[in-house]
Amino acid sequence: MKIATFNINGIKARAEALPAWLDQAQPDVVVLQEIKSVDDAFPREPLEQRGYHVESHGQKGFNGVAILSKLPLSDIRRGLPGDDADEQSRWIEATVECPRPIRVCGLYLPNGNPAPGPKFDYKLAWMARLERHAAAFLNGEVPVVMAGDYNVIPDPIDAARPEAWVTDALFLPESRAAFRRIVNLGYTDAIRTRNSGAGIYTFWDYQAGAWERNNGIRIDHLLLSPQAADRLTGTGIDKAVRGLEKPSDHVPVWITLD
DNA sequence: ATGGCTATATGTTATAGA
Fold first, then answer.
1. Each residue's pLDDT expressed in tens, for chain A with a length of 258 residues
2. How many domains does the structure of chain A reveal?
């Protein structure tokens, strides 16, 4: 089973690029971030025509997440638990129905800039909620994949120019420590299991020729519970998508499980 | 670069992203 995460930076803006990638990559399950659409306006037809069940959790203008799955989805949860007052659409999870079911979570973690400030406080509070939810998952026996745009550069090797990020919310010690705490509960950073060195990126800014200069960062991650990690057979980053017509600033990142 | 570009709604400018 191939499970991918892709921050598409606008579902309507990616009306051509997303189906083109789906046709080429043939993922079974995809979590999308930054759909920037309300659910009623989400263009489901091109995806359903390709055999995907579509579940979205959107809001007006920005944020928004979705799950596409060729297998049926059940037990769909919208919103990260822990704060009923949080109105930002950044979390969706569902069980992929198959002989060995998998719980798939799609997340769009807050950016947190400028830091310090209320946006950074919100990021850290959201990460604390994520840690609690991730810990609760480990009590069960079901494999869990938490995939998405974490907006965290875990280590200096995950940025082409780490010195440029030292005051940024994506790379501040508090953000990196919060990410590490979640991993250290017992999760596996899937991409790192197959790529130990520097230069592995998932995002290149639209500005300043970042793509042409390969000035990238690795911020899109798939964290696997032990039961999911035991089934990992492969990983990939579809980097070429960044060089195609009208791209997102992120590229798809994927795993395969047996 | 004290944000060079992109997307969306609040729409011919502001907000957000990373």
1. 999 999 999 999 999 999 999 999 999 999 999 999 999 999 999 999 999 999 999 999 999 999 999 999 999 999 999 999 999 999 999 999 999 999 999 999 999 999 999 999 999 999 999 999 999 999 988 899 999 999 999 999 999 999 999 999 999 999 999 999 999 999 999 999 999 999 999 999 999 999 999 999 999 999 999 999 999 999 999 999 999 999 999 999 999 999
2. 1
Question: Which of the following is catalytic: A28, A52, A149, A249?
Answer: A149
Can you tell me the distance from the alpha carbon of A97 to that of A75, in angstroms, rounded to the nearest whole number?
Answer: 10
Nucleotides of B under 7 A from a protein CB: 1, 3-10, 16-18
Q: Which residue is nearest to nucleotide B4 (CA to C1')?
A: A208
Cα–Cα dist A60/A76, whole Å: 21
The CATH number assigned to the domain holding A139 equals 3.60.10.10
For the CA of A114 and the C1' of B2, the distance in angstroms is 14
- A38: containing domain: 2-257
Other C-beta atoms lying within 10 Å of the C-beta of residue A144: 23
**Count of CA atoms in the C-beta half-sphere (13 A) of A227:** 15
The encoded tokens of residue A88 equal 């930002």
